[in-house]
């Protein structure tokens, strides 16, 4: 099935009422037929609903549909993108292990990997996404995950997925790819051999800034990489917390199975049925939106590149951009999503432009249908000195735009008046 067909139909079989829209199963628990039925569900002899912290019919449709879009085998929805990332890493690594991460990551992912996971005894080692070869110097027998973003936020770089996957496979290490900005519409890392994708569903999946959520997706056939792999003993040995279950011995996708039965059970960062339903609505038109976001962003980037007050534009869809070739290789029809940034003279010039725009909302979010403008130096990166800002590729005059679905004519006209105000 083509992606836009799956986005409308995958994972949903109409219930007895024949409802066209997926119902919201707003419930905490489910009645068992009898004691044997309950025991069978807990023992995985029969699959079914137990308690909404573990599974829910609305969330199930969201998970199956998203897995279909990514070309994956199974998915697990979580309460936020940050919890999806935490689950992906915590499902593979424990105290004493390390993970190798691209240094071009979303700020929350940087703090989670460098600081929070450190307190759990998991060390993060960083490589430059433009230099995948450096990964080989960082991995050892305690490395459990190589983590990177396909299209990075906020630096807007494109990862060489094939090169990173080849190194990970050489050492039998799991790759976790944050595919939030590209979305499965533009990029499908699992089909190129990546093992797990994670998403903040709060962005393009909902599409209208309606809800916080996350999802992780497991590639088809991942069991072959986990089975008998000494690096991941906990997938091959009995889980004492689940009456001795060996995750690679059952005919179910092992990574999502363990994330659900162990992590979701114990940490509880579950997607609410209502939010899952919102994500299902968003997915119906995700492919249409991503084309339009990408078209608007390219037109705006082209305009900005020609404006004398703009020093530099970062958008991989521009031929002048150093990521252009990589974007052509990895993104569907070379479409590059809605995120771009540009640099003006200094902090004062940036502040003036941000304050002068009328159509762009000053917000720290991306992937909304309404366009968003952000000034990282005064918000997300406020604590950094001028030197530190330059070192992480966020100069004081940098402005980030998440291009929405307004008419590109209006977006360009408003940006022009703001630049010239
Ligand atoms: N990954 C990326 C690339 C993001 O941009 C974000 C949020 O901006 C996240 C993960 C975190 O997602 P959430 O806000 O849903 O926790």
TrEMBL record:
<dbReference type="GO" id="GO:0004124">
    <property type="term" value="F:cysteine synthase activity"/>
</dbReference>
<dbReference type="InterPro" id="IPR006235">
    <property type="entry name" value="OAc-hSer/O-AcSer_sulfhydrylase"/>
</dbReference>
<dbReference type="GO" id="GO:0019346">
    <property type="term" value="P:transsulfuration"/>
</dbReference>
<dbReference type="InterPro" id="IPR000277">
    <property type="entry name" value="Cys/Met-Metab_PyrdxlP-dep_enz"/>
</dbReference>
<dbReference type="InterPro" id="IPR015424">
    <property type="entry name" value="PyrdxlP-dep_Trfase"/>
</dbReference>
<keyword id="KW-0663">Pyridoxal phosphate</keyword>
<dbReference type="GO" id="GO:0030170">
    <property type="term" value="F:pyridoxal phosphate binding"/>
</dbReference>
<dbReference type="GO" id="GO:0005737">
    <property type="term" value="C:cytoplasm"/>
</dbReference>
<protein>
    <recommendedName>
        <fullName>O-succinylhomoserine sulfhydrylase</fullName>
    </recommendedName>
</protein>
<dbReference type="GO" id="GO:0006535">
    <property type="term" value="P:cysteine biosynthetic process from serine"/>
</dbReference>
<comment type="similarity">
    <text>Belongs to the trans-sulfuration enzymes family. MetZ subfamily.</text>
</comment>
<dbReference type="GO" id="GO:0003961">
    <property type="term" value="F:O-acetylhomoserine aminocarboxypropyltransferase activity"/>
</dbReference>
<keyword id="KW-0808">Transferase</keyword>
<dbReference type="InterPro" id="IPR015422">
    <property type="entry name" value="PyrdxlP-dep_Trfase_small"/>
</dbReference>
<feature type="modified residue" description="N6-(pyridoxal phosphate)lysine">
    <location>
        <position position="203"/>
    </location>
</feature>
<dbReference type="Pfam" id="PF01053">
    <property type="entry name" value="Cys_Met_Meta_PP"/>
</dbReference>
<dbReference type="InterPro" id="IPR015421">
    <property type="entry name" value="PyrdxlP-dep_Trfase_major"/>
</dbReference>
<dbReference type="GO" id="GO:0071269">
    <property type="term" value="P:L-homocysteine biosynthetic process"/>
</dbReference>
<comment type="subunit">
    <text>Homotetramer.</text>
</comment>
């Amino acid at each position: 099935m083509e992606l836009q067909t799956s986005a409308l139909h995958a994972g949903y079989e109409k219930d007895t009422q024949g409802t066209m829209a997926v119902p919201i199963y707003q419930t905490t628990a489910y009645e068992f037929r009898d004691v044997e039925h309950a025991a069978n569900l807990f023992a995985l002899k029969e699959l079914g609903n137990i308690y909404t912290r573990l599974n829910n019919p609305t969330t199930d449709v969201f998970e199956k549909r998203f897995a279909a879009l990514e070309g994956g085998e199974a998915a697990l929805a979580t309460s936020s993108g940050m919890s999806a990332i935490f689950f992906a890493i915590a499902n593979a690594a424990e105290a004493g292990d390390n993970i190798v991460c691209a240094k071009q990551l979303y700020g929350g992912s940087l703090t989670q990997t460098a600081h929070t996971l450190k307190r759990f005894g998991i060390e993060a080692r960083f490589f430059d996404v433009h230099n995948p070869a450096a990964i080989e110097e960082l991995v050892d027998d305690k490395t459990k995950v190589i983590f990177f973003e396909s299209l990075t936020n906020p630096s807007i770089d494109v990862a060489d997925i094939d090169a990173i996957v080849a190194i990970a496979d050489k050492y039998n290490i799991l790759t976790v790819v944050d595919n939030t900005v590209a979305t499965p519409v533009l990029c499908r890392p699992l089909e190129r051999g990546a093992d797990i994708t994670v998403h903040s569903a709060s962005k393009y999946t909902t599409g209208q800034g309606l809800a916080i959520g996350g999802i992780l997706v497991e590639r088809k056939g991942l069991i072959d990489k986990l089975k008998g792999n000494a690096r991941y003993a906990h997938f091959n040995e009995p889980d004492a917390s689940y009456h001795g279950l060996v995750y690679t011995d059952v005919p179910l996708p092992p990574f999502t199975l363990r994330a659900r039965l162990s992590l979701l059970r114990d940490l509880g960062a579950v997607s609410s049925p209502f939010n899952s339903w919102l994500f299902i609505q968003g997915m119906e038109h995700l492919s249409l939106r991503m084309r339009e976001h990408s078209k608007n962003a390219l037109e705006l980037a082209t305009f900005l590149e020609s404006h004398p007050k703009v020093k530099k534009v970062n958008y991989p869809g521009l031929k002048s951009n150093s990521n252009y070739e990589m974007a052509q290789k990895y993104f569907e029809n070379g479409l590059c999503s809605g995120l771009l940034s540009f640099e003006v003279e200094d902090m004062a010039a940036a502040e003036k432009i941000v304050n002068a725009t009328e159509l762009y909302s000053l917000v720290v979010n991306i992937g909304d249908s309404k366009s968003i403008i952000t000034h990282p130096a005064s918000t997300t990166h406020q604590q950094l000195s001028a030197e530190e800002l330059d070192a992480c590729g966020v100069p004081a005059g940098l402005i980030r735009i998440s291009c929405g679905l307004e008419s590109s004519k209006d977006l360009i006209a408003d940006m022009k008046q703001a630049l010239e105000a």
